[in-house]
Design brief:
Helices cover 24% and strands 27% of the residues. The protein is built from eleven helices and twelve strands. The protein is globular. The protein starts with a helix and ends in a 35-residue tail after the last strand. Keywords: Signal. This is Peptidoglycan-binding protein CsiV.
Amino acid sequence: MIRKLAMSAAFCLLPLSQAMAESWFEVEVFLFERNQPSAEEWPEQTRLPAFAKGRDLISPVVIPQDTSLVPCSEEERLVDSLRCDAMDIQIASFAPSYPNPMPVKVVAPSQVVAEPGAGALLMDSTKLQFNDAVQQLSRESGITPLLHMSWQQAMQPRHASTPVRLFGGENFADRFTAMGTLRPPLDPVMEGGASTNAFGLAITSDSAQSAAPDTGSNGADPQVLIASDDTGVSGLQQPENGLDGTSMLRNRPPAPVWQLDGLLNIYLSHYLYIETDLVLRTPGTRKVAVEDEALQSQSYGQSDNQAAGASTAKTDQQIAFEEQPFLFAIPLTQNRRVRSGQVHYFDHPKLGMVIQIRKMTQPTGAVDVEEPSTEPEGDDTPEADVINQQQNQD
């Protein structure tokens, strides 16, 4: 009886052990912009992917590592807490310096070996097999290469998969916000009174600080408030060396606004699936309603009753439209069932993507999955995407 129970328990645990076994694949992708004219109208309401959900394989290899910005140890903090507080401000205000434009080819500096349980790993240049095709496409008129890279990852079901963050091309942050509107000019006080410290970070001179009015917390820059809340700068005592955390954070360059940005999710659900949530940003113009300034000045200082009457008397002639620069975010959102070994092309009027998922030598403990030999009847493309909502879990 005991032997039967043991055998039954072993068979019950077998599906669980199989489910826990990983199956690794190698992925190569090439993305490019198509500069041909298009008759399509792109949305003016910007919807951005959930970038924070993606695994960033690009930043670690394109951003120079600053080894001087190392947090203090507990022993160092006990000896010189003021210096350590200043170092905390330095680290909190550190802004990574990306190349602009980004390099098209992003590769690991050396070969890496996949290990069970690890996340996606960027591959070195020896793993790139699209080089000839990339060169041929790049020579075509109207094609601008944006990103070419390869990585290895363990394939998971939809609910457990982690997208890979893809970005590249030009950084528009000096002109536009992430939502596409024109970036407002810098505070002239900050422009005129900024200098840099030994770490290359901007600080504000005493004269510039004294010239700026004390607006209090209600008049502060909301971006600075967010940064200070996240880093604890607002609660730190200002160091004697003149470093001011809020001033340094205010002088941080804005977050990058990449020409290509988004998420690529690959998961395994009997078949392999490629799920894209990408945007291609392209400058243009849009019409914006602008109220006549003369009418605004007339209504200024009126009583509530007068203002209400003036509001009801407005006509379409009082609203003017003007062309304003705008950074469109053109979406590429698809979900496609694929087979390993095949080269797939995702077509789009403005953005092209060539991708291949290849079988590879499995790491120790991983298993080589067998894909179904026949195609299923009908379209089993999921209704909801894992990148944004993670519904319809397997």
